[in-house]
Design brief:
With about 200 residues, this protein is an alpha+beta fold. It has helices spanning about 10-15, 25-30, 45-60, 65-75, 80-90, 95-100, 105-115, 150-155, 190-200, and strands at about 120, 125, 140, 165-170, 175. It folds into two domains: about 10-90 and about 190-200, Orthogonal Bundle (Ribosomal Protein S4 Delta 41, Chain A, domain 1), CATH 1.10.1050; about 95-180, RNA-binding S4 domain (Structural Genomics Hypothetical 15.5 Kd Protein In mrcA-pckA Intergenic Region, Chain A), CATH 3.10.290. About 40% of the residues lie in helices and about 10% in strands. Strands 2-1-3-5-4 form a five-stranded antiparallel sheet, covered by helices on one side. β4 and β5 (about 175) form a beta hairpin. α4 (about 65-75) packs across α5 and α5 (about 80-90) crosses α9 (about 190-200). It starts with 7 loop residues before the first helix and ends with a helix.
Length: about 200
């Protein structure tokens, strides 16, 4: 299954954000990677700023170019503000929902759990990370996987996470999507309007 496999620290430093989760590289080197990372950077063009924002969204949600483009097309055909709808579609991906529920510490970890058939949707095994979770869907951990250390450790570490658009049942180790998140409920530092402007060119 295609996904970004390159160096994560370089990407985090490029955007100066913990794109893939906590990064020691950002603490040590808060400047961009490369030979001239410390030097003064020339002023970026409007296009470069817009492209950078799209790249940040892609890396944040672990989506490749073709997938991202298809999601944007889908968002542009739906009612509502295109940029906000795009983020809602990204948030509705199964790997992201698994991450938000706290079953995995990172989206990359969530993607792996889904791909390795540890996750169920409405009681049925689902191994497609890009599956779109719908309101009312119950996302759970497969019975045989409930004792996996990587899952139990994550649930303990992220027990304080609470999103208004989700419900979590600790006893059953499953959660439900109860609403579509509004823009102010999505914590990612992404300027979706810049992405819309980029695709509108």
């Amino acid at each position: 299954m295609a996904r970004y496999r390159g160096p994560k620290a370089k990407i985090a430093r490029r955007f100066n954000e913990a794109i893939f989760g906590p990064s020691k590289a950002l603490q040590k080197k808060s400047y961009p990677p490369g030979q001239h990372g410390r030097g003064r950077r020339k002023k970026q063009s409007e296009y470069a700023i817009q492209l950078m924002e799209k790249q940040k969204a892609k890396y944040t949600y672990g989506v490749l170019e073709k997938q991202f483009s298809n999601l944007f097309d889908k968002a542009s055909r739906k009612k509502g503000i295109t940029g906000e709808v795009l983020l809602q579609l990204l948030e509705s991906r199964l790997d992201n929902v698994v991450f938000r529920l706290g079953i995995a510490k990172t989206r990359r970890g969530a993607r792996q759990l889904v791909s390795h058939k540890h996750i169920t949707v409405n009681g049925t095994l689902m191994n497609i990370p890009s599956y779109t979770v719908k309101i009312g869907d119950v996302i759970g951990v497969r019975e045989k996987s409930k004792s996996l250390e990587v899952i139990t450790d994550s649930l303990v570490a992220t027990s304080a996470k609470n999103f208004a658009w989700m419900e979590w049942n600790g006893a059953e180790m499953n959660g439900k999507l109860i609403a579509v998140p509004q823009r102010d409920e999505i914590p990612e530092n992404i300027n979706e309007q810049l992405i819309v402007e980029l695709y509108s060119k």
